[in-house]
Amino acid sequence: MFLSHKKRFFQPGRTVSLFLVGFLALCSFFSDGLTIAAEAASLEELQEEAEARKALPIQSNEIDNWPAGPQVSAQAAILMDANTGVILYSKNIHERLYPASTTKIMTALLAMEKGNLDDMVDFSHEAVFSVPADGSNMGMDEGESVSLEECLYGIMVASANEAANAAGEYISGSIDDFVSLMNERAQEIGCTDTHFTNPNGLHDDQHYTSAYDLALISSLFFRNEMLCKISNTARYHFEATATQPDDFYKNNKHQLINGEIPYEGILGGKTGYTNDSRQTLVTCAEQNGMRLVCVVFKEESPQQFTDTVELFDYGFHNFQVLNISENEKKYNIESTGFLQIGNDVFGSSKPILSIDTDSYVIIPNTVSFQDLDSEIDYSQSNENRVAGIEYSYHGMYVGNAYLNLVTDNASSYEFDTNMTATDVSVEKTEAESETDVESQDTIFINIKKVLVIILVAAAAVITIFMIQALITNRRTAKRRNNRIKRKQRRRSRMRADFDDFDF
Questions:
Q1: Which own/partner pairs from 388-394 qualify as long-range (CB within 8 Å, at least 24 positions apart)?
Q2: Is 130 a catalytic residue?
Q3: What is the model's pTM?
Q4: CB 3.0–4.6 Å: which of 154, 187, 208, 480 could bond 138 by disulfide?
Q5: Using 50, 70 and 90 to split pLDDT, how confident is the model at 351?
């Protein structure tokens, strides 16, 4: 029996099959070993590249008396205030790199600017099948639809490529037209190193941006509270509807959002990854009156998160916010005698020019407001703005403010209320433009002060006349008294002479 089984076992066909199975298993074993060895070599190479990137120069560290920023392993990194555009940290911020899924920040921004959150977004065949099935998605099928709000959650939380495509078609009618809109909007924002070829960030050699450009785009994104809420969602529940039959959850992979790395003041962010871009990350956090956007490009996980934390700590711990109107002395309205208007020039008047009270500068903790340089720009397009004041420190922009015309004037006096910059003598002449603007002394008339000066002068004149009159009267009285005394003496002598005669 044993022999018969053995004989069957070693039949020629079975022997060949077993040989092939063994050979394939052996090949698989060696293949896995080679793959593991290749991956180990690749990881080692990636770590070497990361260390080399860590040694790249940091441009913001070259500014005199500027706080030294951390050495991060990102190819490019920036820390920017979302409200003012002040750059606190810069490393290769204008280098063109691949943004990967952080592209979806622009996609979501345009969807919010152009769309309605309650509108339904349809998923076309192109939207679903023009992206890899194994890429980031939310599992939508052709013909399904969700609201634009849910589509945005799919874009920012699930990083769904088909959702980005569908949003683009909803806004512009086609993906190609939406890409054109993305590039137009980038130019409007001020991006000079950006070109998009798709709404999702899948790799294309002609799809690139820079850390600076993406920070500009992200600054607009994070000024929108709804977009902050969506992008700061750790886990979102997609419920089944009549147009989308599945009930499922999607988790955010951003570790500063999902709680894996706790950090105070996080407002939102977006992850990104392709083999060519490596790890990319955009994050926004708010502390101490600063809303900072951090962008890191081309990193290895998990350094994109730890470096972002280090950059936020650098910004929040080394810089301060100063209100310009509260600290400005050079252009202080009250001390320079600007023209004032109001219902009562003697009591309730207001300056016709004022520095806007919401503007501020962001400067190192070791620097004072008086250390800043300022420059006035009179070419303002807004009719209520007379001039703009830009502040810098060792050539680094730190904030700006505007000199505004006061428009709420209900004066009963016949003043010209349709005033322009030239009406208040702030227009520059050709000769003035050749000199330093800061050295110019613009003279304005303050009615109240002029009247006070006139009254004081009049009082002084009257006082002088009174003193002169007193002195004159005193001298006249003295002469009169002397004449009276002389007359009295003459009369006395005359009476004495008459007394000598005996009548």
A1: 389/324, 389/328, 389/331, 389/355, 391/324, 391/361, 393/63, 393/65, 393/66, 393/363, 393/364, 393/367, 394/63, 394/64, 394/65, 394/66
A2: no
A3: 0.73
A4: 154
A5: low
Residue with tokens 């977004």: 121
Answer yes or no: 104 catalytic: yes
- Integer Cα distance of 48 and 63 in angstroms: 29
Helix or strand run (H / E) with residue 401: strand 396-405
Identify the pLDDT of residue 494: 66
Contacts of 227 (CB under 8 A, 6+ apart): 108, 109, 112, 152, 156, 221, 268
Instruction: Name the catalytic one among 60, 73, 90, 104.
Output: 104
Size of the chain, expressed as the number of residues it contains: 503
> pLDDT grade, residue 473 (50/70/90)?
confident
List 73, 145, 159, 218, catalytic entry: 159
As a 3-state breakdown, the chain gives helix, strand, coil percent values, each rounded to 5, of 45, 20, 35
Residue in 92, 68, 86 with CA at minimum distance from that of residue 299: 92
Query: Active site includes 174?
Result: no
The secondary structure of 191-212, three-state, reads: CCCCECCCCCCCCCCCCEECHH
Mind spelling out the 3-state secondary structure of 241-295?
A: CCCCCCCEEEECCCCCCCCCCCCCCEEEEEEEEECCCEEEEEEEEEECCEEEEEE
* pLDDT surpasses 80 at 426: no
Q: Which residue in the list 101, 210, 219, 359 is annotated as catalytic? A: 101
Instruction: Calculate what percentage of the chain has a pLDDT beyond 70.
Output: 76
- The structure tokens listed for 193 are 């190193």
